[in-house]
Amino acid sequence: MNKITIAPDSPIMAKDFVFGVATAAFQIEGAADLREPCIWDTFCAEPGRIKDGSNGLEACDHLHRWQQDVELIAGLGVDAYRLSVSWGRVMYRDGSVNQAGLDFYIQLLNALKARGIKAFVTLYHWDLPQYLQDEGGWLNRITAYKFARYAEVISQAFGDRVYSYATLNEPFCSAYLGNEAGIHAPGVQNRQWGRQVAHHLLLAHGLALQVLRKNAPGAKNGIVLNFSPCHAASDSAADQRAADMANQYHNHWYIQPLFEGRYPDLLQQLPAAESPTIAPGDMEIIATPLDFLGVNYYTRTVYRANSKGWFSDVPPTAPPLTDMGWEIYPQGLTDILLELKQRYPLPPIYITENGAAFPDQLAQGQICDDARVAYYQQHLQATAEAITAGVPVKGYFAWSLLDNFEWAEGYAKRFGIVYVDYQTQQRTLKHSAIALRELFASRR
Ligand code: IFM
């Protein structure tokens, strides 16, 4: 069985470096009958949206199996567990609280605390209640204020059980994939909407962060963003410019407002009809100081100039690729961390997601996912290199604890370090889980 080998004096082997595993509510919880429907339920019910025609109604049935899953997490020897809360499980359409839903999370947090596992809670991981989408969703500015109210309810109810709150997970995906490219829920293809949704999400983040500061001053409060270094397909000036535009549009659009209170210069190049409406004071709220920044990293992206004066991505074809078709490019993790350090006054950083899907096979009770073990080895090394170069990375979370509902890809793509048999809901540690467990246990 392959191991993950990291030098004992590596900065990630220090005792105070936080190792964890991550999941998200819609991807694992199931028990859809015990919550309000969300935009992903609606999206899944639309023919052709999800590759395997599946949905999140049962998922990993975590809501009924959470005790067993907490034992699984504890057995890995992690320091932390990153989870998200389903908004529609804790708040009804009329704004009242679903106490049973809240109690589920409180019990889960209590169990984590009892085992000394730090809880990293994300308030929004894409599952907007459908009742809010019916009123315009993130296109409606009011949703940002409703999100702040939701943050109020959660932070009051959870008390000191939470080590860290993230307001949003990957607003790029909610805005761009969901409302501009239309490949995620709610499936809208409209650039103006995408830009406006991005702005309202960031506003929601700033408003909620202020609530968290007030109600959970002892917690580390921040946001989780995804980054993919943007490379040019060629040395041509046009392609170089395309890669720079993509970098502004996909990466810096979400981080620059947080640190500088303004959008990238590319905003000036958007036609007025495609630019977001920004109310006075919004940018100051968005720039509320962070206690930490979560960085999610999977791969790099290559761009070329297109005939519209814009950029198009060039999908990778040469190996090594993951089952998602994403290039395995560990250097990109070091590079993006160094780019962020050079441009912004960074707070502590956590790698809040990193991992890979591979076509795992369960054979004789084992999953020999050597490619995933190698992926973790390379990306942990890349994280250590960034720390050595001065980036304040304080922790690393493997995505994901369990195989789960991979959004528009359904259940066909397996990101877990633990294999899930969806017929029986049986969990089996993959070799990558065993390799990570041994790494965690070997720390100084
Ligand atoms: O599964 C997702 C997760 O929900 C958000 N970040 C990327 C992962 C892999 O696509």
Strand-helix topology:
Blueprint: E1 18-22, H1 25-28, H2 39-45, H3 62-75, E2 80-84, H4 87-90, H5 99-114, E3 118-124, H6 130-133, H7 142-158, E4 164-169, H8 171-179, H9 191-215, E5 220-227, E6 230-232, H10 237-260, H11 282-286, E7 292-297, E8 301-305, E9 311-313, H12 331-343, E10 349-353, H13 370-388, E11 393-399, E12 418-421, E13 426-429, H14 431-441
Parallel strand pairs: 1-2, 1-11, 2-3, 3-4, 4-5, 5-7, 6-8, 7-10, 10-11
Antiparallel strand pairs: 8-9, 12-13
Helix pairs in contact: 3-5, 7-9, 8-9, 12-13, 13-14
5-hydroxymethyl-3,4-dihydroxypiperidine binds next to loops.
Describe the protein in words:
- It is a single chain.
- The protein is of the alpha/beta class and about 450 residues long.
- It has a single domain, classed as TIM Barrel.
- The mean pLDDT is about 100.
- The chain has 14 helices and 13 strands.
- Helix 3 (about 60-75) runs parallel beside helix 5 (about 100-115), helix 8 (about 170-180) runs antiparallel to helix 9 (about 190-215) and helix 13 (about 370-390) packs parallel to helix 14 (about 430-440).
